[in-house]
Amino acid sequence: MDHSDDYQHVNYLWDDAAAAQLDPVERLRYRSNQLGADQRITNTGGGNTSAKLTQTDPLTGEAVEVLWVKGSGGDLRTATRANFASLYMDKLLGLRGLYDRAVVKGAKTPIEDSMVDMYRHTTFGLNPTAASIDTPLHGFIPFKHVDHMHPISAIAIAASADQERLTQAVFGGEVGWVAWQRPGFDLGLIMQQALAQNPHYKGLIMGQHGLINWADDDQECYALTLRLIEKGARYIAQFDKGDQTFGGKKYSGPDAAAREALLVRLLPTLRGLVSQHRRFVGTVHVTEEVLNFVNSVDAPRLAELGTSCPDHFLRTKIKPLYVAWNPQTESYEALLAKLEAGLAAYRADYTAYYEACKHPNSPAMRDPNPTVILIPGLGLIAWGKTKSESRVTAEFYALAIEVMRAAEAISQYQGLPRQEAFDIEYWLLEEAKLKRQPAEKELARNVVVVIGAGSGIGKAAAQRVAQEGAHVVCADLSVEAAQATADELVKLYGQGIGVAGTGLSGCGPALGLAVDITNRASVQALFGQVVLAYGGLDNIIVTAGIFASPDKTGHIRDEQWALTYAINVTGGYLVADEARTIWKAQGLKGSLVLTTSVNGAVAKGGSVAYDTSKAAANHLVRELAIELAPLVRVNGLAPATVVEGSSMFPRDRVIGSLAKYGVAFSEDETTEALRAKLANFYAQRTLTKTPVTLADQAEVAYLLTSRQFAKTTGQVISVDGGLPEAFLR
Ligand SMILES: [Zn+2]
Q1: Is the pTM of this model over 0.90?
Q2: CA 321 to ligand 1 center in whole angstroms
Q3: Which of 273, 561, 589, 596 is buried most, with the most CB atoms less than 10 Å from its CB?
């Protein structure tokens, strides 16, 4: 079992040929990526790797030993060279003197925390990447390569009641055990000492935390990490309880379709309940493993114990909210009542935990709402300030379930003691990290649905709100066009981190969906998908519209007339009417922007269906503003003559308009050239004499959505370059 041969619980991914082409730092990056690629080896953002390399000191030209170690933040799976800090080994080890001179030292002392700032003084090669609190765990181990992972099998051993005995039973003498201690300088010294006293150790199980192991060769270190994890997993597998896992099954859930329908109904209410302080974005995670846990006899007892690995509970909080609801015998109303009571009890509990564990200098209490909610039959619902955060939270609790399953198979699962959990959650160093984060953008924590996002103003609006931190659902009649806009946004802003979320809920910051707003069932289906993806929605911008080009006499066919009204008027109404249910269930402020037109105010002939439909849309804005108050603001955006990239101006219409206004053109000019001509002609009719662009429209759509227009509702804002005949009276 030394190399790639028959691992069952990890994947051996090392490729000698690939590694051989890399420089020593890149080999470390390579090793890290291979380790991070498997969640059974480590969680998103969890664990770190290091290499002690001999390099030339730029100051002296001499060879020096440099510790390259994964820095603060960052994630092994996606790490690049820039995620690694580099420190002079002699200077790092020299910090020991400073530490020893402190009168009060040890875990959680001020001198220990102050060492983190000292690492910057040991930086080699002007590397701007900050060293993490785990740096001494690597620095004080006298081997060239060190891997510190959070594997399920090792955490399970480390979170068992008799973890020290189990370490011996699983690994014989080759792996030692150190009791839980918050990572830092002192833990590094403890490990150094454990190894000095037991020079045959190849690694250590870190109580309640994970695994650390080492070797002088990088490939050997990688292989050792895998071998130890595999060894632990094989040991655990012998004791697997099968059907009796978690005490056996207590509930059985609805089938997949019924569960989905229930989630669509529940999620907006749930989002509203947990978003009382600040809005959260949700991730639904429903796997067989999760269902086996939430439906089990032991779930309430185990949920109460919370997660173990410190990495996990920074996001999952001290414990999840488990709701003891029987999906087979109890009603939806009973579920809501139990959720409300459960949330109230959770908040009270969290406040009591804070009060009991706080220190005189602790940061103020954070949001007391749970970030993980477990419901029999429904699964796991996680909440975070962004999609990415809630996905990581779901991932961490799903991993915690695996840890509990394994620990309960071989022993009894133990959570981290409350005070220790608190001292991590409210660690001043963590607080400093939070404070260093940039201020949240205007539409952070918001889910914006843009209908018509496949092209023109809708696409520009989707891009604009994404720029303000919104999660954007790009909806369009053409799912391909919607998807293309969403793909561009995900490419620009990144998928984020975290490997969780089932079905649509595994999405990133943007999503492309199909909708036909003339069809109520289609609108309903769209919002159901939005709710499953993000847990709810906040703002809607409708830019979908149609201009049926009249014939030479200025008329359109009856079915075109009907379609014009179906899209331009009824569509906006159906969207508002279906979203109303979600907005009400959430009880959170929202906004709706309908795109109308200056044609709604100017009677000019030649486009009577379009113009009258837009006049109706203007009044729809006012009616909806009254109907949806006080929760939702409704405003209209009235563009004029945006010719650039607009689906409303196909070549035929451009040519028709140029002919109508007597602007000289030739049939062989490109569509873009013809559009520019028309745009310029329109510009000359306006007060500002400048063509009106998609960006101009998107800006106002965004502003009407934002808090900057928090006191404006029932208004139609023209973005037309200034057309006196369109001034609203
Ligand atoms: Zn760790």
Answers
A1: yes
A2: 25
A3: 596
